[in-house]
Amino acid sequence: MFSFEVIAKEGDGRVGRLVTPHGVIETPSFVPVGTLATVKAVTPEDLREIGNQVVMTNAFHLHLRLGEDLINRMGGLHRFMNWEGPLITDSGGFQIFSLGAGKEHGVGKMAPIFPDENDRGGHYGLGKKPLVKVDEHGVDFISYLDGSIHRFTPEGVIEIGRKLGTDIILVLDECTSPLHDFQYTKRAMERTHCWAQRALEAFERTSDGTQSLWGIVQGGAYKDLREESASFLSDKNFDGYAIGGSLGESKDDMHRVLDWTIPSLPEHRPRHLLGIGKVEDIFEVVRRGIDLFDCVAPTMMAHTGTFFTKESEGFQMHILNAQFKDDPRPVEEGCNCGTCRHYSRAYLRHLFLAKELLGIRLAAIHNLSFMESRMQEIRTAIKEGSFDTLSKTWNR
Amino acid sequence: MFSFEVIAKEGDGRVGRLVTPHGVIETPSFVPVGTLATVKAVTPEDLREIGNQVVMTNAFHLHLRLGEDLINRMGGLHRFMNWEGPLITDSGGFQIFSLGAGKEHGVGKMAPIFPDENDRGGHYGLGKKPLVKVDEHGVDFISYLDGSIHRFTPEGVIEIGRKLGTDIILVLDECTSPLHDFQYTKRAMERTHCWAQRALEAFERTSDGTQSLWGIVQGGAYKDLREESASFLSDKNFDGYAIGGSLGESKDDMHRVLDWTIPSLPEHRPRHLLGIGKVEDIFEVVRRGIDLFDCVAPTMMAHTGTFFTKESEGFQMHILNAQFKDDPRPVEEGCNCGTCRHYSRAYLRHLFLAKELLGIRLAAIHNLSFMESRMQEIRTAIKEGSFDTLSKTWNR
């Protein structure tokens, strides 16, 4: 039911075909984030029309808010959220960071550079008190909803994934902070490896072949650790590999982490870069051989009236700017999305000024379409050997 | 380009066919309200899928927020909001009440009974200071957005309607408060009649046949005045008639107002009841010969997770109630709307608990579909002579 095949390559960049029981994902692919069983402000019909192939949800948040047993009784997560395509569940490992050291240190995964990516799922109030306690066997979370305590273990996360019925289960890992030192990052990585092994054993004991389990490489921005982690996990029989944890403090750091990690991962397994995917990142991560990546930016930025476009500064157009007041043009000339086909900048600006919810949805549709269009162009370019040329047109 | 024909009758209830340049409206029809050029939380595609035939926007709010010149430069209101079906524009007459005496008296059109219908377009802060000054020639509004002063006249409202390009223009009237006495209500009615005559003259001077002008009957909850107003306006050459103003303090009062008014209106012209349309009202107004009515309730109540259903108390289901936590059923069994076809009560409750915007959209789709289904059933029933039987199944 699962397979992955590399169809074309240009340098290290590659086009692949990832088969899951809920459909095929052509890679490289951008993965919209639907933390709480909904990609913010859009419907599954919107996603299908946009061309999105897969959605990423979050086992931790769904466990806290609904419980996997309830979703299981409702027919599983696909049916519950009416998305019949492939689903990935993130494990809670990122929340060990965002509700723990990230909260304590007051930083994001690449903070202070991307403060809006501090978490994929919500706002937990101010203050630096961690809501997380990690030990060798697992982690205790204090719920940000009601203060109740929730134990997560590698085996428990497999159990949640089973009940949700998602196609791709990510192992429980410990995501570290950019401010953690080498010693702590190493200890956390070793714990992550131990948990990965336990997760794999629990997964194999209960597998009926309808779900896959992916490992997560850790090791922060330390070359030795990234190489060690990638090698350790590559020797295990995971169906795919994600790259998580701190990526340093700059784009250059992030690129270095990928350069240290990817060569040690198996060529014939898919690779997912967790939580990254601004417009300016796409070409650099694909160039290095990433197959999947997820990011909240297209939908989060939609909430404030920020539209992605090629021509604008930073690839972002802020629709509330006065210059768009009577601009009859679509957000992006030539864009074939439902928003650009039907609505002017003037109308979209009006919706955001008047705080009409339709504006957010139309912005999300455009931004997700923008990402999907880039991915389609990239897949075509790699097949034709013109990826490098294409990427130069986006290089600022 | 405009015509209206009564196709079938049962008692005073009737099925009609209202032809406009942007399409045919089968009546009786519920009219969704899109005050600010968007029916809250849904797209025109959603409306088409639901089966909505016409949308009501508001000349006053669009003038204040955008200006009719801007919308005209963007290709007119149909194109601006991407709704190619028939459009009605309310005139600002209701705002003479809601921003004037209604604000001062602290009441709605039928207040204190329907406090959520105080206005069709927004919230203007607390306090009782009126933002309106009426004289014989027109009205000055103080903008709730920036304090600027805007003069509205009968002729000016025709001019706005021309620039917006809507199919049905409602005349500027003076909507009174349920707390206004007979003398004031009579004076306001006479002013409304004078304005109606001026509007008709301005309309006829500039008509190219692509738009129609409807008069508005006033007279509060006073029998003499309602009869006088309906007779006065019936003698004029309006394309249709709306019934506006105070409808008293109870459902019985409202029914009496209709019983006094409708017999004096011409049989061969369509009749629109302004701002009314809760589920329990539908059958009573159709029974009395109303062809069109608009109401914000389906979309406004969607914002708080209130879903219309036949079986619930007051025809309203509050999805946040704990009993729906693990309820796998759709909101309404047998409902064919996009929400009920795909989503469980448990999922919808989750969306509202988590404050996910998708919930509001799915609720609006259901509520608008619920109203549209009732109207389809009613049209069929009147044709078959079974309207009275049908209405008894909804009588509580």
Distance between the termini of chain A: 42 Å
Helix content of chain A: 40-55%
Enumerate how many helices of chain A there are, as a single number: 15
Poorly predicted regions of chain A are 111-125
What does this structure look like?
The structure is a homodimer of 396-residue chains. By secondary structure, chain A is α/β, with parallel strands linked by helices. Chain A folds into two domains: 3-295, TIM Barrel (Alpha-Beta Barrel); 306-391, no CATH class. Chain A has helices at residues 44-50, 59-65, 68-73, 77-81, 93-105, 154-164, 182-206, 223-234, 251-261, 279-287, 297-302, 338-342, 345-353, 357-384, 387-392; strands at 3-10, 13-20, 23-27, 29-32, 55-58, 87-90, 132-134, 139-142, 149-152, 168-170, 212-217, 240-243, 271-273, 292-295, 306-308, 316-318. In chain A, the strands form four sheets. Chain A has an eight-stranded parallel beta sheet with strand order 4-14-13-12-11-10-6-5. A three-stranded antiparallel beta sheet of chain A has the order 1-2-3. The radius of gyration of chain A is 20 Å and the shape is globular. The interface between A and B is large, with 37 and 37 residues.
